[in-house]
Amino acid sequence: MSAKQFTPTAFPEKAQALVEVCHFLGARDWAPATGGNFSVRLDKAHCLITQSGRDKTKLNTDDLMVCNLSGRALDPALRPSAELALHTCLYQLDASIGAVLHTHSVTSTVLSRATEGDLHLQGFEMQKALAGNLTHEDEISIAIFDNDQDMTALAECVQQRWAQNSITQPGLLVRGHGLYAWGTDLAEARRHVEGLEFLFACAWQEKLREHK
Ligand SMILES: [Zn+2]
Fold first, then answer.
1. Domain housing 108
2. Ligand 1 centroid – CA 175 distance (Å)
3. Over the stretch 180-199, which tens digit does the pLDDT of each residue have?
C-alpha cells in the first residue's frame, strides 16, 4: 500500500471503532482537557492515532491520523503528539499489541504519586479482567515510571524494563500523569483500561482508609 492510501478514510472500520472507544473513555472523564491519546495498529509498520488537542468526547474520524512506527505522520501537514513515542514503542516491543490507550484519570494520577516503586495488587476479583490472570489470589504488579517530558527517554525506560521482563501486566503508570494500557485489539485494550481504573480506584480508597 502506498503512503497516499494511508489515510484514516482507508480504514473506516478501525477508525470508527477508535472514535467509539474515545467517546466511551472521554465520557468516563479519563481524558479531560483534551488529554490522553488512543491508537490502533493498522499493520506491522503503521498505527492510527488521535490528533493532539482534540476533545475526546466529541472527536470524529477526521481527528485521527496515520503514523508509522518511527513516529512520523504520513500526512506531512499533521504533527503527531510527543506521546506517540510510547505508543510506537509498545507496538514495536510486542507484535501482538493491536491497540494502545493512554488515559489521564484523577485516580491514576494521585495513586501513582502516592506509590513508591511499582503498584502491587492482590485479592481483587477484577484482576481477572487483565489478560492472563485467572485468580484474585496472585499478587500482580503494575510498573510505574517517573514522568518525563522527554518521551523518547521515557520510551527507553519502558524498553529497558520490558527487556528485563518486569512489565508483566497489560498496562503501566506514569507518575502524576496517567495510564498506558494495551491489548490485542481495541476491545481488549478498553477492557484493560476499565479493569485497571477500577483496581486503581479500589487501591486509592484503601490507601485513604489506612491514613485515617
Ligand atoms: Zn499523557
1. 3-210
2. 10
3. 999 999 999 999 999 999 99
